[in-house]
Specification:
This protein is α+β, with helices and mostly antiparallel strands. The chain has one domain: Outer membrane efflux proteins (OEP) (Up-down Bundle), CATH 1.20.1600.10. It is 58% helix and 10% strand. The protein contains eight helices and four strands; from the N terminus they run αααββαααββαα. The chain has helices at 7-19, 66-78, 80-100, 151-217, 223-257, 292-313, 358-424, 430-464; strands spanning 106-117, 132-145, 318-329, 341-350. The protein has a four-stranded antiparallel sheet, covered by helices on one side. Mean pLDDT is 86; it is low at 42-52.
Length: 474
């Protein structure tokens, strides 16, 4: 007599095979990107990234501006785009959690109390069989995919990586919104400074116009001088109106970012432009790898690598263990009694023999998606390096330009004073006064614009580095 294989031993054997199953995904290695020895715009060595480097959560505190800090906190609480990104991340996390369920046996239960009538003409119906009868059935079923080739495990790994990438996308969206807010805030403060300069100039031009009127009425100045003074005052007023219009647009954009209606939001023009944080002598490359967009791109490369294993596993037989136990009666009797019980257990083998090339196409698709993800990762790293270089170069060039413009402002102010003194003494025409005052105002506004752009570039550098230049110790 052939010995029977005990069901428990059989199940244990299959479970052991499942636990020892292999993975057909290629051994993962993050794509390598050739980086320079130092930034072109700043001399400094590159260093290896540390796994514990984290994105600073409040990088804007580098600017020591309480109003900016308050606005950033409002953005985190009320921005609808950020809320949508959070919901997308939650959905990705839930999807990844669902994939983990495939690693466990699937157990289900069903019950079917049915009263039915069979046809008198049903084939093979016996004479003693009733036409109307009850059929009560209860079943508990189990199915467990042994995952010998790692298909499910690679699906889980890919899902986890995609969820991590979604978390990085959330961080990238948050960082982008924070940059937009900080940039708009800087622009608003810069426009406030220009509005102050124009208001001061309007006072000076009003006094100059009154002086010219007095001289015109005294037959000392011509009507041409008077109209020039009037034109200069009107032009300065027009420039102030334009600055105020730009400032209103910036304020409205800030209101949108912090989740408020423009009519309910106001930003007082009572604070000076923030100072630029001191830049360290060296910026290590490891800072770039904290950037959430770079981290998200790397996780998607990992997910694509795992999906190659999923595609490869489709070429191999799929083994699963299936079992059920239940009871069935015709309306009377105990469902769980020995006579009414039924059960089944055994392995299930599934292997498509012909699929019209679907598995081949899926394999090629998975490999192509890996190449795409690797190329996108490379692109993200290069873009990150370029942004750092751009902002470093902007800070350097704008600093030089601001020094030159400061000298131009000093010279223009001196020229304005000389021209006005000469005009009052009758040694110069009002045209020279207008020319000198216009040049002085233009130079002062240009200097303020440069100072605003410097702070904007510093914000861009902080964000390009993933949130500052402080590297966690460890």
């Amino acid at each position: 007599m052939r010995p029977r294989l005990d069901c428990a031993r059989f199940a244990a054997l299959l479970l052991a095979l499942a636990l020892q199953g292999c993975s057909l995904a290629p051994t993962y290695k993050a794509p390598s990107v050739a980086l320079p020895e130092h930034y072109g715009e700043q001399v400094g060595p590159w260093h290896a990234v540390a796994a514990d480097d984290q994105l600073p959560t409040q990088w804007w505190l580098l600017y020591h501006d309480e109003r900016l800090n308050s606005l950033q906190q409002q953005l985190l609480k009320a921005n609808p785009d950020l809320a949508a990104a959070v919901a997308h991340f939650d959905a990705a996390t839930a999807y990844a959690s669902g994939l983990h369920g495939g690693l466990w046996p699937q157990i289900g239960a069903s019950a079917s109390p049915v009263r039915q009538r069979q046809s008198d003409s049903r084939p093979l119906r016996g004479d003693t069989q009733p036409s109307v009868y009850n059929s009560n059935t209860a079943t508990v079923s189990l199915n467990f995919d042994l995952d010998l080739w790692g298909r499910i495990r690679n699906q889980v790994a890919a899902g986890d990586a995609q969820a991590q990438a979604s978390g990085d996308d959330l961080a990238a969206a948050q960082l982008s919104l924070q940059q937009q807010l900080a940039t708009l805030y800087v622009q608003a403060r810069g426009l406030d400074a220009q509005a102050g300069t124009l208001s001061h100039s309007l006072d000076d031009y009003s006094q100059a116009l009154q002086l010219t009127k007095d001289r015109y009425e005294g037959k000392i100045s011509s009507e041409l001088d008077l109209t020039r003074a009037q034109s200069q005052l009107a032009e300065a007023q027009s420039q102030l109106d334009d600055v105020r219009a730009q400032r209103n647009l910036a304020e409205h954009a800030i209101a949108e970012l912090v989740g408020q209606l423009p009519s309910e939001f106001s930003l007082a023009a009572d604070q000076p432009l923030m100072a630029i944080p001191e830049l360290p002598a060296q910026l290590p490359s490891r800072l770039l790898q904290r950037r959430p967009d770079v981290a998200a791109a790397e996780r998607r490369v990992f997910a694509a690598n795992a999906n190659i294993g999923v595609a490869r596993a489709a070429w191999y037989p799929d083994f699963s263990l299936s079992g059920l136990i239940g009871g069935q009666t015709q309306g009377v009797g105990n469902l769980l009694s020995a006579a009414n019980r039924y059960w089944a257990i055994g392995p299930v083998l599934n292997l498509p023999l012909f699929d019209g090339g679907r598995r081949s196409a899926a394999d090629r698709q998975a490999k192509a998606e890996f190449d795409e993800a690797a190329a996108q990762y490379h692109s993200k790293v290069l873009h990150a390096v370029r942004e750092v270089e751009d902002n470093l170069g902007q800070l350097r060039d704008l600093q030089r330009e601001a020094v030159d413009e400061k000298a131009a402002v000093d010279a223009a102010n001196a020229s304005e004073q000389i021209a006005m003194s000469s005009y009052q003494a009758g040694a110069a025409s009002y045209l020279e006064v207008v020319t000198a005052q216009t040049a002085a105002l233009l130079a002062q506004r240009q200097l303020q614009s440069l100072e605003t752009r410097q702070v904007e570039a510093s914000v861009g550098l902080v964000v390009a580095l993933g949130g500052g230049w402080q590297v966690p110790k460890g």
